[in-house]
Each structure stands twice: as structure tokens, then as C-alpha cells.
Design brief:
The complex is a heterodimer of chains A (242) and B (261).
Chain A: H1 3-27, E1 37-47, E2 53-64, E3 71-73, E4 80-83, E5 87-92, E6 95-99, E7 104-106, E8 112-114, E9 138-139, E10 144-147, E11 150-154, E12 157-159, E13 167-170, E14 173-175, E15 181-182, E16 187-190, E17 192-194, H2 200-235
Helix pairs in contact in A: 1-2
Chain B: H1 2-26, E1 36-42, E2 45-49, E3 66-69, E4 72-79, E5 86-88, E6 95-98, E7 102-106, E8 112-115, E9 121-122, E10 128-129, E11 135-136, E12 146-151, E13 156-161, E14 168-172, E15 175-177, E16 185-188, E17 191-193, E18 202-204, E19 213-216, E20 218-220, H2 226-259
Antiparallel strand pairs in B: 1-4, 2-3, 5-20, 6-19, 7-8, 7-11, 7-15, 9-10, 12-13, 13-14, 15-18, 16-17
Helix pairs in contact in B: 1-2
The chains are: A alpha+beta (242), B alpha+beta (261).
């Protein structure tokens, strides 16, 4: 007979988790290449006999929305955004990683690296190396890097059949066991970076709705408590006191 | 409740953002200043339900697990080394660099520092020095009695002395280039130091391959764009407010919990 309270509890639990997801989205409003996340919920049915079932709610997944974020023009040579579906491939000590945060720079050896210092790979599988004489570096929309001295290499932009295979590692990095394929509909834009695709208004309205649902769930528990208190009073009352 | 700490990381990040913007705006008129931009990264994710694990004996797998992020952090604050505008000052020892490269400045402790602010003067010995009196490499002495000092685009310093018809070359200003300019360490006073991440500097003649040219009588202004800084500031302030709203919502949720009987 604890069902009402337990159903309300399951609601409390998922709403708190959803709140964490919204909080993370809002905290990453200005994070380069960040993709907003959504919680997925599912009904969990339990047979309680006499042909009736009660429904609990549970959190089955958190998915990233990989739609392109707004492009922000910085005019910095090594700020590179990807328009369309695609990722840069990076070489890290832990293995191959992927990112959409195209805030790159040159390291002491002249290699193109991320802010964390991981080399960005070219389509031949090696890092892109520049020499000090390379000036006026131009990156064309297909990823070809050229300077006054000629072509340096071509940035590798890859895509995945199912972006849900990607595991988020923080720092804008993703790892996966799926095979990467060359991106077909991706375009590279130099001098811009991709902003976070979090939409503050959407997150705010979700947060308000969530708060109200949370309060409703609490009301449900309260009402159930009141119901039971009354039942006990009525049923346990002795004839003298009635 | 993770939301509280997540929103706190968000507010902290926006504070850094405002600090950087404030510094950019404060240096709107600083010669040779390069604007900075903070770079944010998402923090580690907690796996509550791992992606790719089996969801049944039949081999079906979880298509998207439950990964909850834990907030944001400031990854780096980097300089955007875009060329600033050149303004004419008409001053003999004002030099602007058009293109890549830095002037080498000899610090009193013997170390070398680098700068793009070419507001130079001459000291009592006739040596070309910065506003703080530090020698500009390689140390050029303008002879006493020089009438006219010309510094050409490739750094040659020529003076005209008294009755001489031909100008006399007294030295050559050199520029230093770095593989990774953003890796230089700023020490204030418009000066930068070489670091392992900037790579070692290569001295070159202005105008040679990969090195910029000099412009006498001009100064390179700060590359801060006031309009974009102000719009960034508005965005940052709103983001800060939104994060504080998350905190108050989380607080309200906790108040609701405490009212449960």
C-alpha cells in the first residue's frame, strides 16, 4: 500500500537528475563546441495483482543534441569551426579522440594542437606541422591548410553513423569504438569557432516546468499522507470518541 | 544535489569571463595590446548507466547511457594575435610592426623580453630604449649631433650627421618570430617572455620571409574591439544570472523536500 509514495519518489528521483542535466547545460552556455543534453525517461510497469499495473518512471538515457551551434567570428587564424556533421580527430596519450571545439594553436614544434596540447590529425594520419616561415596560413572549406610556402596538409574531418555511440569525456572530447568515416557534408570555416548550442530560454522554461512537477510530486506525497492519517483516525476510533 | 555545484562552476567561469573582458576594455588604448579570450571546457562526466552495455541476454545494447556532466571549467585564456591598426604619430622613434614578429628588449636582469609596443625613445647615451629605459635589441646608438634619423621598413637605422651628404647606417633593428605566439608569457608593461610552449624565437631582418616590416612614425594600436567586448559582457552577465537562477531553483527543490512529512 506504499505505492503512491513510491511512485512519487520515482518522480522525485528522475526530476532531480533532470535538474542536474539542465544545470550542466546552463553552466556550459559559453563552452566552445558544447552540445546540449536531454534526459530520456521510460515507464516501468509493475503488476500489483487483480489485472492492474502501476507505472513508475525511470531515467534511461541522456542524449546529446548534435545540431550545429552558432558560429562566432574571432578572426583568429587557428580558430576553426565545422559546419555540418563532423569531428576533428585528435591524437592523445589515451588514444584517438574526437572534438568539435576548434580552438587550436601551434605548439613549440609548429604542430597544430588543441588548447590541451593534443595534436590535430591530417588526412594522412599525422599531425599538421608548420615551419616558422609559414605565414598567411589559409584553411579552405575542405580543410586544406596552405601558406605562402605551399600546401601543408588537409585537416581530417570525420563523421559517425550514429552519434549516440560517442562517449563524452569532458574537455569537449569524445571517444568511441565505432569506425569513423570521412565526413561528406561538413565544411571547415577558418577564423570562427562554434559556440555552445544551448538555448537559455528553452533551458529556463524546462527548469520552471521541472520545479512545478517536483512540487506536484511533493503534493501527491502530502495528500497520500493526509489520506492515511484520516483513515487511521476514522478506522481506529473507539465508539466512545465517535 | 549536483545542480548546486554545477551552477557554481558556471558562475565561476562567467566571473573569469568578465575579468578577461574587463582587462581587454581597460587596455583599449594600450599600444600593441592583444585582446584575450577565455576558453571553457565541460568537466568530467559521471556514468550512471554506461553507454554500450548489454540491456538483455539477447545481446541488445544500451544506445545512449546516462552520463551526467559536472559543470564547466576555464580551459585557457589565450591572446588573439590579430594585427592592430596603425596610427600615425609622426614621432621619429615610434615604430609599428606590420605582420609577424616582436622587438627584443633587454631586461635589467640580463634576460630578453619581447614586445610589439614600439614607443621608443633615446636615453642619455643616445641608445634606443623603451619607455622604461630598457635597451631595444641589438642596442643601437644614435651619434650625438645626428640631424635626421630614418628607420626603413627592413629595420635599417640611418642618420644624417652635420655636413655629410650621404646618410650613415648606424645599426639594424631585428624582429623575433615564434612558432606559437599565443604561448608567450605576459609579464605586464607590454612585455612578453619566451616559454617552452612558445618555442624558441628566431631573429630575422624585418621584411624577410615570415617576418613583418617596420613603419616609422606609426604605432600599433590595441586590437580590442569595444563593440564586441561590450556584447560579450552582456552575454556573460546574462549567463551569470541564469546560473544563479539554477541555484535558486535547486534551493527551492530542496525546500520542497524539507517540507515532506
Amino acid at each position: 500500500m506504499e505505492n503512491t509514495v513510491l511512485v512519487a519518489l520515482s518522480k522525485h528521483m528522475v526530476l532531480r537528475r533532470q535538474m542536474d542535466v539542465i544545470a550542466n547545460n546552463i553552466a556550459n552556455m559559453n563552452t566552445t563546441g558544447f552540445k546540449r543534453e536531454r534526459s530520456l525517461f521510460a515507464t516501468y510497469l509493475q503488476d500489483v495483482g487483480e489485472g492492474s499495473k502501476i507505472a513508475f518512471v525511470r531515467n534511461t538515457g541522456v542524449v546529446s543534441d548534435f545540431s550545429t551551434g552558432p558560429l562566432e567570428v574571432t578572426n583568429n587564424t587557428f580558430d576553426i569551426a565545422i559546419r555540418g556533421n563532423g569531428f576533428f580527430e585528435l591524437e592523445t596519450p589515451q588514444g584517438t579522440r574526437f572534438t568539435r571545439g576548434g580552438r587550436f594553436e601551434l605548439d613549440a614544434d609548429g604542430a597544430l594542437v588543441t588548447a590541451q596540447g593534443y595534436p590535430v590529425l591530417a588526412d594522412d594520419g599525422f599531425p599538421i606541422l608548420t615551419v616558422p616561415e609559414d605565414t598567411n596560413i589559409i584553411i579552405s572549406s575542405d580543410g586544406t591548410v596552405t601558406s605562402e610556402g605551399g600546401e601543408i596538409g588537409r585537416l581530417l574531418v570525420v563523421a559517425f553513423e550514429d552519434t549516440r555511440d560517442l562517449i563524452k569525456l569532458g574537455g569537449g572530447l569524445y571517444a568511441t569504438e565505432a569506425t569513423a568515416q570521412p565526413a561528406l557534408d561538413a565544411e571547415v570555416i577558418q577564423g570562427s569557432i562554434e559556440g555552445s548550442n544551448v538555448e537559455p530560454i528553452v533551458e529556463m522554461t524546462r527548469m520552471i516546468t521541472l520545479l512545478r512537477s517536483f512540487q506536484n510530486a511533493q503534493k501527491l506525497s502530502d495528500d497520500e499522507n493526509e489520506l492515511r492519517r484520516r483513515a487511521i483516525n476514522a478506522l481506529a476510533a473507539t465508539p466512545q470518541s465517535v | 544535489m549536483r545542480s548546486l555545484s554545477i551552477a557554481a562552476t558556471g558562475m565561476l567561469a562567467q566571473q573569469t569571463n568578465i575579468d578577461v573582458i574587463a582587462n581587454n576594455i581597460a587596455n583599449l588604448n594600450t599600444t600593441g595590446f592583444k585582446r584575450q579570450r577565455p576558453e571553457f571546457q565541460d568537466l568530467l562526466y559521471q556514468n550512471l548507466r554506461r553507454v554500450g552495455t548489454a540491456s538483455s541476454d539477447a545481446g541488445t545494447i544500451v544506445p545512449s547511457g546516462v552520463q551526467i556532466g559536472t559543470g564547466v571549467r576555464n580551459g585557457s585564456v589565450y591572446r588573439i594575435t590579430e594585427q592592430g591598426n596603425l596610427v600615425s604619430t609622426g614621432n621619429t622613434f615610434d615604430l609599428a610592426i606590420q605582420g609577424k614578429g616582436y622587438f627584443r628588449v633587454e631586461l635589467p636582469n640580463g634576460e630578453d623580453a619581447f614586445t610589439r609596443a614600439g614607443t621608443f625613445q633615446i636615453n642619455g647615451e643616445g641608445e634606443i630604449v623603451t619607455l622604461d629605459g630598457f635597451t631595444v635589441g641589438p642596442g643601437i646608438i644614435i651619434p650625438n649631433g645626428a640631424i635626421d634619423v630614418t628607420i626603413n621598413a627592413s629595420g635599417g637605422v640611418e642618420v644624417k650627421l652635420g655636413e655629410q651628404i650621404e646618410p650613415q647606417n648606424v645599426g639594424q633593428i631585428e624582429l623575433v618570430t615564434f612558432p606559437n605566439e599565443a604561448g608567450l608569457e605576459a609579464i605586464g608593461q607590454n612585455l612578453l617572455l619566451e616559454t617552452p610552449s612558445s618555442g624558441s624565437g628566431t631573429a630575422g631582418t624585418p621584411g624577410s620571409a615570415g617576418v613583418g616590416t617596420l613603419q616609422q612614425g606609426f604605432l600599433e594600436t590595441s586590437n580590442v574591439d569595444a563593440v564586441s567586448e561590450i556584447t560579450n559582457m552582456i552575454t556573460a552577465q546574462r549567463a551569470y544570472e541564469l546560473n544563479s537562477k539554477v541555484i535558486s531553483t535547486a534551493d527551492e527543490m530542496m525546500a520542497t523536500i524539507s517540507q515532506l512529512r
